[in-house]
Amino acid sequence: MKGKDKILSTLDKMVKQSKADHTEAVYIGGESGLTRYANSTIHQNVSELNSKVYFRTALGKKIGVASTNSLDENNLKKALASALEIAKNQKDNPYFDSLPPKADYRKIDTYIEETAKFSPLERAERVQKIFEMARPYKLDVAGSFTTGEVEIGVANSRGVVCYQGLTSSAINIIAMSDTSSGYSDALSRDVDEIDVDDLAEAAIKKCLDSRNPKEVEPGEYTVILEPVAVGCLMEWLGYIAFGSKPFLEGTSFIAGNVGKKMMGENITIYDDGNDPSGIAFPFDFEGVPKRKVTFVEKGIAKEVVFNTIDANQGKTKSTGHSLTPDSSEGGFALNVFIQGGNSSLEKMIQSTEKGILITRFHYINGYLDTRVALMTGMTRDGTFWIENGKVKHGIKNLRFTESMTKAFSNVVALSKERKIVNVWWGDVGCTVTPAMLIKNFKFTGKTEF
Amino acid sequence: MEELIKQTIEYLKKKGVDYADLRQIKKEQEDIKVKNKNVETISRSEDQGFGIRVIANGAWGFASSSVINEEEMKRIAEKAVEIAKASAITKKEDVKLSEVEPYKDKFSSKFKTDPMSVSLDKKIELLVKCSEILMKDKRIKVAETGMNSVRTRKFFASTEGAFIEQNIVECGAGMTAMAADGKDVQKRSYPNSFGGDYAMRGYEFIESLKLVDNAERVRVEAIALLGAESCPDTITDIIIAGNQMALQVHESCGHPTELDRVLGTEISLAGGSFMTLDKLNKLKYGSDKVSIVADATLEGGLGSFGYDDEGVKAQKSYLIKNGLFVGYQTSRETAVVLNQTSNGTMRAEGWNRIPLIRMTNINLEPGEWKLEDLIADTKKGLFLDINKSWSIDDKRLNFQFGLEIAWEIKNGKLGKIYKNPVYTGITPQFWNSCDAVCNKNHWHVWGVPNCGKGEPMQVMHVAHGTAPARFKNVKVGVSK
What's the pTM value of the predicted model, to 2 decimals? Predict the structure, then answer.
């Protein structure tokens, strides 16, 4: 860990050296380890120490961005000069006025020393425990287990100075028999909050319960989506609906529909980077404090997240959702929550006469028709037939092709309990989702396992 | 740098490891994006570091760092050994590697003009000009053009005596026009969607794309799609354009023939494969028109190189021959399972990632047909162009692809256009329905710069040489 003072003084020094009208410096760096396993043995065990400094410079409205992963002063100066050189050769960006001003952000503790120090041997020992739990059932297990620390610093020529030290730990477990598989996962800032025994037990149970799956024909069914399955859908809504880019380009279902009912009254979806019940990260990569943004409130489309440049285009203010300076994605929601209901997974199963219980989805694609959030994807690692309020047996995996504005208008119940679901940006965010009971969910294909 | 690498290899030998290799990589990138005639982003990045992979106590360990000096190389070497020893507590058997000649060599990709040396003005002018043509109609709401250039220098050294330097230059460009009329949104891209087309070539490749010449057609077709009927749900014959054939090969042949996937080591993310060991040399994967090779020797292909990241020389090998499944993409470790040596497909995204089996240039060999003859030979069907969405199950059987546009084929002629075409199938059934592949005049190597695999995620540059091909009785749409 380099520490707040060293990072911010390095960034500040570079910003002060810059000859541009506006200069921003962003540091992202850390050390992480990942243990990957399959066939009940570790086949990959890796460690990485890396850091990156981005410079965004502006000459009037001309912007240049350059980055380096070397903290050597000469290389930092070279990157800063490169950003300036690009700006000189740029054309005006009509939506750039200035970098954001200094603002206070919430102080949140996001660093757990035990997670940062967790060793490869400790990861291997916990993974070994999973193998031991699966062995009596003659199941193979696969998955990955990661621990690490990241530091993020932002400074700019308008006085922004932000720093956050973060740790995270994530695990996924897939138990496998010849005919079935079962999945569980967890994400936390604190490695000791990850209960490997519970997670292994859940994956093993799903695998055993779904052995010798039966075939179900595609069609419309009542489905119960476990939180991970809901999280998979939310991740895609983040790409195609909740950000400033799809909103301004008119491809999001929210664009042109603000104030209109787009989902059921029981659906409220929001982003909250300050909520420690998720994976909180209180400012964005421009140093703008995160504010809570509600995308859908009781079914009504409300707003999206913005970075500074897109906010200027949209004649609004940044919500604190910029990505790194090299990104052209605009504002992006990193901490998506769905408000829970008053049901539970057990109650949903008990209330279902005929339906399908889905653990998670695989390989979703949401580019089919983004205006209605039409997505396709496969079920995976634990798909079950429910009959007369009970889980009867496993079924072979199905392909869904469904509009999420339609599906989220057909939600009958949401669980009170919500789960943190891992995303690939798990150091700085997650989705927090309940289980959902949805009627008339459309499956359009099937596979052979 | 060479001396530092050699010293570290010697240090690892003294530590008594079973095996070790070290890769030191420096990568420079430039990314330009123009949106609606305005330059949205120009960014340059420089990234360097090294990674050390060891086998100690019969198990793998890997550690990497962006700090390059003698002390850090020793620290990382020791860390890799420590990690390997941690891995070893769960091992079932010792890791074995197939033999490879320890090459001492240098490889440089061929190019006329280094894309990084071309002035920003010239690149911006090209992209803005395309954007201006795309924006000539008010119904085009978003016009995106972009260009990416990469220059990589990498060293590979191993305790077996290999020392290889490779210098690779890559670039690509493309455009997309999005049309909207308040009711619908449609898009057309050129030369391909999601960034365009890429190659291991110089700026001459960008110029060969003739972006400006194609911009007007892209605009006209995007607007025409707004008024087009939705593609009907049906079962019909389809002719798939080469760009989409590239993705079809990628998802349904490239990934399932990666032997690490087959052996289960990708389960935690992308899944396994239906092409299991028992099916090798037995599975009738496709019709006799279908032959697919993995060819890392193809000059200019985005999946080409001199040596893979285990120091194995670039090769060409058959995966599918006249419809029969005959081979996998392998590594030194996985090849042992087949009593073979590696066919050289192990690559890592960068210095901080461990090599995995990655597609090289996975190519569908050309057939005999002229495209116009193939269309003339099709009584009823659809011609499908440029991918819009993709999804496939975790054993690579059930797939569904969405396209930007379809043309009706009626009595051997292209007719009206349809929007939102989708086709779906089961991999071996689908490839067995292939009755024609177009000839070498229609064959093109499509660069795919965004193939994802592994944890931590690694995005790899791969390519697919393909020509348009016809498939019989394919399910189109999702209702029937």
Answer: 0.96
Q: Is B411 on the interface with A (CB under 8 A)?
A: no
What is the Cα–Cα distance from B351 to B155, expressed in whole angstroms?
Answer: 10
Encoded tokens for A190: 């604190």
- In angstroms, the separation between the Cα of residue A53 and the nearest Cα of chain B is 10
Which of B38, B61, B400 lies at the smallest CB-CB distance from A91? Answer: B38
Beta carbons of B202 and B440 less than 8 angstroms apart: no
Q: pLDDT tens digit string along B300-323?
A: 999 999 999 999 999 999 999 999
From the list B41, B89, B185, which residue is nearest A250 (CB)?
A: B185
What confidence tens digit (pLDDT) does each residue in B269-282 have? 999 999 999 999 99
- B91 touching chain A per CB within 8 A: yes
The answer, yes or no, to whether residue B476 has pLDDT greater than 80, is: yes
**Dihedral of alpha carbons B277, B283, B286, B287, sign:** positive
- Rounded Cα distance between B438 and B30, Å, is 36
A380 touches chain B (CB under 8 A): yes
B48 contacts on A by Cβ (under 8 Å): 69-70
pLDDT at A397: 98
In this prediction, the answer to ipTM > 0.90 reads: yes
Q: 10 Å Cβ neighbour count for A73?
A: 12
- State the smallest CA–CA distance between residue B439 and chain A in angstroms: 31
DSSP lists the bridge partners of residue B143 as B177
**Tens digits of residue pLDDT in B55-107:** 999 999 999 999 999 999 999 999 999 999 999 999 999 999 999 999 999 99
Q: CB–CB of B420 and A51 under 8 A?
A: no
Query: In A, residues 179-238, which contact B (CB 8 Å cutoff)?
Result: none
The pLDDT of residue B445 is 98
What was the pLDDT predicted at B478?
Answer: 86
**Positions of E strands within B159-248:** 163-180, 185-190, 197-199, 229-230, 234-240
Average pLDDT over residues B7-35: 97
Distance CA B12, CA B19 (A): 8
B positions 170-209 inside 8 Å of A (CB): 178, 180, 182, 184-185
Other CB atoms within 10 Å distance of the CB of residue B195: 21
CB count in 10 Å sphere of residue B110: 11
Give the whole-angstrom CA distance, residue B442 versus residue B434: 17
pLDDT at B480 over 80: no
Structure tokens at A419: 């789960």
**For residue B182, what pLDDT is reported?**
86
CB contact under 8 A, A144 and B66: no
Neighbouring residues of A203: CB distance < 8 A, sequence distance ≥ 6: A141, A173, A174, A175, A182, A183, A184
Question: In this structure, how many other beta carbons lie within 10 angstroms of the beta carbon of residue A62?
Answer: 20
Residue of A37, A40, A43, A95 best to disrupt the B interface, most CBs of B under 10 A: A43
Q: pLDDT tens-digit profile of A175-210?
A: 999 999 999 999 999 999 999 999 999 999 999 999
Q: Kindly give the interhelix angle for A73-89 and A4-17, rounded to the nearest 10 degrees.
A: 40
Q: Do B82 and A325 touch (CB under 8 A)?
A: no
Which residues in chain B have their CB less than 8 angstroms from residue A52's CB?
47
Q: Is B89 on the interface with A (CB under 8 A)?
A: yes
Per-residue DSSP letter, A213: P
Alpha helices in B116-184 (DSSP H): 120-134
Q: Does A339 touch chain B (CB under 8 A)?
A: no
pLDDT tens for residues A227-274? 999 999 999 999 999 999 999 999 999 999 999 999 999 999 999 999
Question: What's the CA gap between A321 and A165, in Å, rounded?
Answer: 18
DSSP string, A82-99: HHHHHHHH----TT---P
